[in-house]
């Protein structure tokens, strides 16, 4: 087993649960964002960053909070489910955040690209930004604390040192008269 991963039967259950929940959440997101909508008109695509957020703020703080909250919450569970499905207990917080945020951004971009062919759905660059921010915020809020709790609960303390293994063949022989290895 690779070092740094949660070990044992409990780890397998966590990874399987994370994978199943990840697939279920992605199926819900696909259904929610890619279903055709029967609307009398369609607004044009928003390709200007933060223009939609400014327009939401112009509607009032309650409507803006609802719309921005929806954008943040749609893919936010991925910030927890992706590291859970991966199962690394000893991972860099920054590296894990970057990997998870990049995965969230790519999934959001894929959804935006698929929406171009769905009737009634419109591409919005602000949704990509909000979805990625939601993934990052959920990851920062839960994953570092959960990993710390699991490491402490596992009774392992600090990260185990990596042993340097001796080569299987031993030292390389040298030729006495020449003084170099063959």
TrEMBL record:
Transmembrane portions of the chain: 12-34, 68-85, 97-116, 128-150
Where is the stretch described as Disordered? Answer: 154-182
- Alphabetical list of Pfam families matching this protein: VanZ
Q: Which key words are in the record?
A: Membrane, Transmembrane, Transmembrane helix
Q: Does the keyword Metal-binding apply?
A: no
The record ties this protein, via InterPro entries, to: Teicoplanin_resist-assoc, VanZ-like
Domain named VanZ-like is located at 23-141
Q: Does the keyword Membrane apply?
A: yes
Q: What is this protein called?
A: VanZ-like domain-containing protein
Natural source organism: Streptomyces griseorubiginosus
Supply the source organism's classification.
Bacteria, Bacillati, Actinomycetota, Actinomycetes, Kitasatosporales
């Amino acid at each position: 087993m690779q070092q740094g991963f949660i070990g044992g039967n409990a780890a397998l259950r966590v990874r399987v649960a994370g994978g199943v929940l990840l697939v279920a959440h992605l199926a819900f997101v696909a259904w929610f964002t890619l279903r055709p909508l029967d609307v009398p008109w369609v607004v044009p695509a928003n390709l200007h960053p933060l223009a939609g957020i400014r327009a939401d703020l112009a509607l009032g703080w309650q409507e803006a909070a609802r719309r921005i909250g929806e954008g943040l919450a749609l893919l936010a569970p991925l910030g927890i489910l992706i590291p859970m499905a991966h199962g690394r207990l000893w991972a860099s917080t920054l590296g894990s955040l970057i990997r998870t945020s990049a995965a969230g951004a790519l999934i959001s971009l894929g959804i935006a690209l698929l929406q171009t062919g769905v009737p009634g759905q419109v591409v919005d660059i602000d949704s990509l930004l909000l979805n990625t921010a939601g993934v990052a915020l959920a990851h920062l809020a839960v994953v570092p604390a959960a990993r710390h709790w699991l490491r402490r609960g596992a009774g392992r303390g600090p990260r185990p040192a990596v042993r340097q293994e001796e080569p299987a063949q031993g030292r390389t022989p040298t030729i006495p008269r020449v003084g170099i290895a063959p």
